[in-house]
Amino acid sequence: MTEYFEVHERDGAARRAELRLSEPVTTPALVDDVVADAGSLWPGERELPEGDESTLTILPHRGLPAGTADEVQDSFKVDYPEVEFPNAVVVSTDTAEDYGADVYVLSDAQGSVGHGKGMKDAILTVKDAVPDDTGLYLSGVATPRNVAVLAYAGVDLFDETKARAKGLQGEYLTTDDRYFLEDLDELPCSCPACQVTREEFDRAACAEHNVNALAAELSRVRRRIRDGRLRDYIEGQARQDQWLTALFRELDQQYGYLEKRTPLYREADLDATTEDTLKRVEIQRFADRITARYTNRFDGHPLVLVPCSARKPYSESQSHRQYMEAVNFRGHMVSMTSPIGVVPQELETTYPAQHYDSVVTGSWTAGELEFVTEVLRRYLQRNDYPRVIAHLPEDYRPIVEAVEDDVDVDIEYTVEDHPTTSASLSNLRDALSGELKYSKREREHNTVRAIADYQFGDGAGDSVFGDFQTTSRYPKIQVRDPDGTQLATQVPNYGTLSLTLEGAKRWDDSDVPTKRVEIDGFVPHGSVLAPGVIDADEDIRVGDEVVIEGPRAFGIGRAQMHGEAMVESTRGEASSVRHVEEK
Prior knowledge:
Blueprint: E1 5-11, E2 14-19, E3 25-27, E4 29-30, E5 35-37, E6 56-58, H1 70-75, E7 87-91, E8 103-106, H2 116-129, E9 135-137, H3 147-153, E10 157-158, H4 161-168, E11 171-173, E12 178-180, H5 203-227, H6 230-237, H7 242-252, H8 255-261, E13 270-272, H9 281-292, E14 303-307, H10 318-327, E15 332-337, E16 341-344, E17 356-358, H11 366-382, E18 387-390, H12 397-403, E19 410-413, H13 422-431, H14 440-456, H15 460-463, E20 469-471, E21 478-480, E22 486-491, E23 496-499, H16 501-509, E24 516-519, E25 527-529, E26 533-536, E27 545-549, E28 553-559, H17 563-568, E29 573-582
Parallel strand pairs: 4-10, 5-6, 6-7, 7-8, 8-9, 13-17, 14-15, 14-18, 18-19, 24-27
Antiparallel strand pairs: 1-2, 2-3, 11-12, 15-16, 20-21, 21-22, 22-23, 24-26, 25-29, 27-28, 28-29
């Protein structure tokens, strides 16, 4: 049972956690000063240390380097005892399993340094073998340049061994490069070790600088995790070394690993600065849900494709107000954008549609063209429209033309020079001449149902909210049943629905699978802690609405861990509780 490691915040696989010693350590962190190594068993047997809460004790172990034969690993496997003090056990990629420890030290990690796929395989193998609420410690590998990417992969604890050794060898390390000390004519740093003349700066000072740079980088990583913006930083930092770029790209191929650990939404904006952004979980998840869950309910109305805007949500931009005035509720507006793909008007506030900022160059990259084209193709194949009006600038046109042969619908282009010129807007109005208008009530109802489909699953808009009325105004719509009982409220910050107890009961009674947290025999107030969870659906993600039920209570809340972590963890908040009733 994990007692001394507790995860507080998650940003994908990266975590800001607490190593719960007498003086707590916030991770990712260097732990040289708080680790006590009980020693290797290779020379002979060692006594089990007494341990205490001031240090993380590494239990007597046999380290196995990369490439150790399977029969050797099996023969010298250590059976670690259960202890009642903060402890770590040493495992290899092939021997990792749950020993009830607080931290797992990967003995063969150094063999994967410089090899992106090898490091990815090593980290994911251990993470899959041990409980979610335990720390992963890589010794002798951290440098200022690689530690951010390793933390992004899921590593929690590091030491200064490699950084200090490199300094004593005369290598001056930074977050983007390394220099031989004799080649430096000035010191490109202002840390305490560098506050001397170049002539006074020796190898001992170089080692101190390297450790300072490593500690500063970890501080930056912790801040990025807290802000939910580590990925933005990693997209640039991974470029500093070829093997880190390879590791980063290998991780992007592990969608299931990252998706499980990535929140459904966050307060931080998403910076789309490179093509790597297209691989982000948030982007792929949005595209998957739009093309597999969303259903157009503006029956009989044409689709109007428009370009995105810099201002979010789109409807608050000047250009989109002009489009909306020209369309005048006679067509269904869907925005095309990179890196999101396509955004129906009902989901313009749904994360990350109103939370991204992209680089505008006036042209699309090959990767952007391929991605947005595929999303549009899948969207049109799923949804039926009598015709499509493409009110798009010239650089968008190849995307639409690329899908014309794959969809059985007429496409009309209305832009002559720029979408907001008088001539183009007049063409748009003329193209919609004779179309009937849909009502504000229809738009609000379709918005509620579209969000429900996106959030809860295909068909949820009809199954959960089959008969309802709306009050308040978009984007803060309140959903009520025909008798006026509130079922849900639209959350404008994230474009999601926050359910009441009655809404949760509708969800529970519907044909759409419920995301359920089974708890022990108590009535929760404010939150459910992990020790109180009996079981949880594996597809729960951080931010999901979850039904909370036990022998004594029924409630609705928001997940603070993914489902697997709820079951495995022995500490931390599994879910907040918004409403609860005693049975």
